[in-house]
Every structure is written in C-alpha cells, then in structure tokens.
Amino acid sequence: MRKAKCLMIQGTMSGAGKSLLCAALCRIFRQDGWRVAPFKSQNMALNSYVTADGLEMGRAQVVQAEAAGIVPDVRMNPVLLKPSSDTGSQVIVMGRARGHMSAAAYFRYKKSLIPEILAACESLAAEYDLIVIEGAGSPAEINLRQHDIVNMGLAELVDAPVLLVGDIDRGGVFAQLYGTVELLTAPERKRVRGLVINKFRGDLALLRPGLEQLRTLTGIPVLGVIPYLEVDIDDEDSLSPRLSQTTPHKLLDIAVIRFPRISNFTDFVPLECHPLLGVRYVDSVRRLGTPDMIILPGTKSTIPDLLWARQNGLEAAFLRLAAHGTPILGVCGGYQMLGERIDDASGVESGAVSVRGMGLLPCRTVFAPSKTLTRVGGVVTCGALSGARLDGYEIHMGRTESSGAAFCLLDDDRKDGCCLGNVMGTYLHGLFDSGELTEKLCAWLCARKGIEPESVAPESHAEYKERQYNLLADCVRAALDMDAVRRVLEETP
C-alpha cells in the first residue's frame, strides 16, 4: 500500500503560529501538485465544525483542509477537547462525544486513544501524498512527556520530521527555540530538521547574526523568518486576537457579545468582511453602547454565560435596547438565552437545575445528554430577512420548543429557531456563509437607519477565503526555504 510522507509542525508555545503555517504549507503543496491533507491528533478549542457525515472536528483542521482544496474529514482531527471549566473538558473522539473528563482523568485515559489516532492518520496516508501534521502547545512540556500523543510522541509513532516554530512577536524567540531544543531528548532533537521564526517585524539584517548563533548552538538550521502577516484566516479558539479587535469604522455597527466561553465566533467573519458592516466583540455595558444590532453567539456553557451577562448588567442593557427596537439575534447558546427558561435537570451543563431566560422569545430549552450534530440547509422565514438561503450546521446539547414564528424552514421540513419582532434566534452555525443572509441583513439595517446600500455586490465569502489562502501561501513561500523543506521530505522514508 502506498503511504504518504509526513511533515510535522511543532511550536515553542501555544499561539506560535503552527495552525497558520500548516494551512500555508497545505496550500503551497497543493499549488505544487501534491495531494495533501492536514492532521492534528488532539485539538483543544471551542470553535468546532460538523462534517458532511455529521461528525464534529476542530476548526483549525477545517481551515487547513480548505487550504488543501479538500473536504474536511474527521480523520484529520480524531481527538477534540472542548473545555467546559478550568480543569475539565468534553472529550470528542472521531467526531462523537465520549463524556466530560477532568484533566487528571484525561491524562490517564489518553494513552488508550493511540490506536484510533494511528488508524485515522494511516487511513489518510493511504489516500494522499503528504500529511501536514500540527502539534499542540510545546513539545518541551516535560511534565506531560509520558504518554504524549500530540507532539514528539506522535512524531515518533508516525516517523515524522519536525519543523519547530517560535514566535518573535512575544519576545525571547532565541530563548524559546534554544530552550525547547535543549529540553528534548537526544532522539527527539534528531527529529527537528529546521527552525522557523514567525511574526517578524523589522530589519532582517539585524536578526541574521542571531540566526547563525542559534544554528551553532543547536546544530539545527533556521529555514525561514516569516513576517507578521496581515491575512484574515479563521481562528480556532477564544485566544484569537480577532476578539480583541474591531473592524475599521463602517456605516453599520454590530456588537457581538464576547461571552467568557464563546464558541464558533467564526460564524461572523462574513459580516466583518462586508463593506458596510462593522463588527465589535463586547464584554461590558460600557463597551456596548447603542449598536445597530446585537448578536449573542454560541457558547460552550449557556447557563454560566447567561448568569455572567445577568450579573454584569449586559442582560438589562439587552432588554432596554430590545424594547427600543434594536435587533437582537441569538445563535445556538445565544438563542437559548433569549427564551423564557433553560432547564438542566440532568446536569448536562451545570449544577443549576433551571434558570430564567431573558424572556425575549416565547421558547424554552431543555438540556439532554445527547448532542445534535448535523449539517442542514434552509430558507429564512423571518420578517425582512425572509427568502435568504442558508447552508449551515447544528452543534448543541439542548432541545428548544417554541410557540412563536420560526426563524427558518429547513430542507427536511423542520422549523428552526424563533422570531418575534426585532428579536430572532436560530441553532444554525455558519448561517452567514452563503452570503444571502448577510445581504438581507445589511439591506434591512440600512433601511432602518436611512442609508442607501452600495450598489456593488461585495466579494463572496468563498472567494474572499480563497484569496486569503493564496496570499498566505505566497507570503510563506517567499519567506521559507521550500527547497530545504522538500529535501527534508525526500530524506524521509
């Protein structure tokens, strides 16, 4: 059986740029005629995605699959951890939840996942020319070396050469790279075939003497210095700088609430890309102001985040603005909050048995242990947004019963969500990706504000993403010694 070559990208820390570099390499090798697929044995993120066959995987590997020009497949991310507290996560294996575990319990459990991880990787390797593997955190976490399944432990299992990435933007990049290499065992150091410095801003000539010293100290060449890139690629978790930024000033102001456990905030990237829609991520009443629209996004923990909004005054602000006609849209967990009550008698999400919702929609949610995972399409049936075609997916633990008008009619004839005047709710993630709802929403908000929509149609979200992937690949190709990377692959059995 033919087997793909493997190349693994590890980092000196979380946020060093591993995910983006893997996406760039997927696009570069695709451009060069390779059949390439991404792989990450274990991902920890609240931004997830539902595949065509109804399985859940991390968003980072979805982005990398898109960059590779292939359909996202759960084999690309066999283990996904979705944090539910500071010390525990929901554990998802091959797209299905296996329950919640404390960090200590998962540490003991994860070794048993190795056969499933290897089966997923080997299955991909039988279908592609190259597997670009992403590590997690740092390989120098010596307290976690035992039973490692995501960094050097995995590299050894699949016999992959490693490129080690450091983040110069945070400072101390030479110490990052040198210290990481020194903490590796001799066999692990041998696997590191190149060092990469990421997020560089400044004069490269001033950096070069340090690069030579680093090579002398470690015996490993620096294969590239990648500049700080201004590309817009979906982020995988709530550490994303996207949540701390605002889009440039635009005519319409949309406030997305930054819940403590916000998830799937990539739902709103198409809004950010629209020429008239300004998107802000807001976590306080002071920052909320009087936007043209409020969006309550998805959250991993609906009840705790609802209580957070109640305690810090945001809920009262929502009620006041809604009474004055401000449109409010709730997505998934945000939709659940807008209803009259949320019941969790089974203790699926929290210790609270039942809590009062915001009461803006005539619906009630009951949590259940089973998780809904499905891709769906439909058409909006709600007011001025009616007629917009949707193509999205559901990821939620609860079931919501509504006595009001539906937000949309799904292709399987189910009604989804609820709509009452200027307040709307839906379970559909990815609802803006098709572009139709974005345009309907923009036209409605413009009419409410007395603004004439621009006559030139904006670039579609799919076209925008393709342009960003190509820009990313061009920048990384220019900065990275791709000939050296190919030699590493040629020398690997």
Written account of the structure:
There is one protein chain. This protein is an alpha/beta fold and 493 residues long. It has 2 domains: 5-233 and 467-490, Rossmann fold, CATH 3.40.50.300; 252-450, Rossmann fold (3-Layer(aba) Sandwich), CATH 3.40.50.880. The chain contains 16 helices and 26 strands. The strands form 6 sheets. Strands 2-9-1-10-11-12 form a 6-stranded parallel β-sheet, sandwiched between helices. Strands 15-13-16-18-26-25 form a 6-stranded mixed β-sheet. A hairpin with a 2-residue loop joins strand 7 (88-93) and strand 8 (96-102). Helix 1 (18-31) runs parallel beside helix 2, helix 1 (18-31) crosses helix 15 (461-479) and helix 6 (173-183) packs parallel to helix 8. The two termini are 14 Å apart. The relative contact order is 0.12.
Radius of gyration: 23 Å
Q: Biggest β-sheet, characterized?
A: 6 strands, parallel
Rough outline: globular
Strand % is 25-35%
- Oligomeric grouping of the chains: single chain
Mean pLDDT, all residues: 91
Task: Give a short overview.
It is built from 16 helices and 26 strands. With 493 residues, the chain is α/β, with parallel strands linked by helices.
Strand and helix layout:
Elements: E1 5-11, H1 18-31, E2 36-39, E3 42-44, E4 48-50, E5 56-58, H2 59-68, E6 79-83, E7 88-93, E8 96-102, H3 103-109, H4 114-125, E9 130-134, H5 152-158, E10 162-167, H6 173-183, H7 186-191, E11 192-200, H8 204-218, E12 222-227, E13 252-257, E14 262-263, H9 269-272, E15 277-282, H10 285-288, E16 293-296, E17 298-299, H11 302-311, H12 314-323, E18 328-331, H13 333-338, E19 341-343, E20 354-356, E21 363-380, E22 389-402, E23 408-410, E24 415-416, E25 418-420, E26 423-426, H14 436-449, H15 461-479, H16 482-490
Parallel strand pairs: 1-9, 1-10, 2-9, 3-6, 10-11, 11-12, 13-15, 13-16, 16-18, 18-26, 19-21
Antiparallel strand pairs: 4-5, 6-7, 7-8, 14-17, 19-20, 21-22, 21-23, 23-24, 25-26
